[in-house]
Amino acid sequence: MADLSQIVKAYDVRGVVPDQWDETLAELFGAAFAQVTDARAIVVGHDMRPSSPGLAAAFGRGAAARGVDVTSIGLCSTDQLYFASGQLGLPGAMFTASHNPAQYNGIKMCRAGAAPVGQDTGLAEIRALAERWSEEGAPAPAATPGTVTTRDVLADYAAHLRSLVGLERIRPLKVVVDAGNGMGGHTVPTVFEGLPLDLVPMYFELDGTFPHHEANPLDPKNIVDLQAKVRETGADIGLAFDGDADRCFVVDERGEPVSPSAITALVAARELAKHPGGTVIHNLITSRSVPEVVKEHGGTPVRTRVGHSFIKQEMARTGAIFGGEHSAHYYFRDFWNADTGMLAALHVLAALGGQGGTLSDLVHQYDRYAGSGEINSTVADQAGRTAAVRAAYEGREGVRLDELDGLTVAADDWWFNLRPSNTEPLLRLNVEARDAETVARLRDEVLAIVRA
Question: Measured at the alpha carbon of residue 382, what is the angle toward residues 376 and 387, in degrees to the nearest 5?
Answer without folding.
Answer: 110
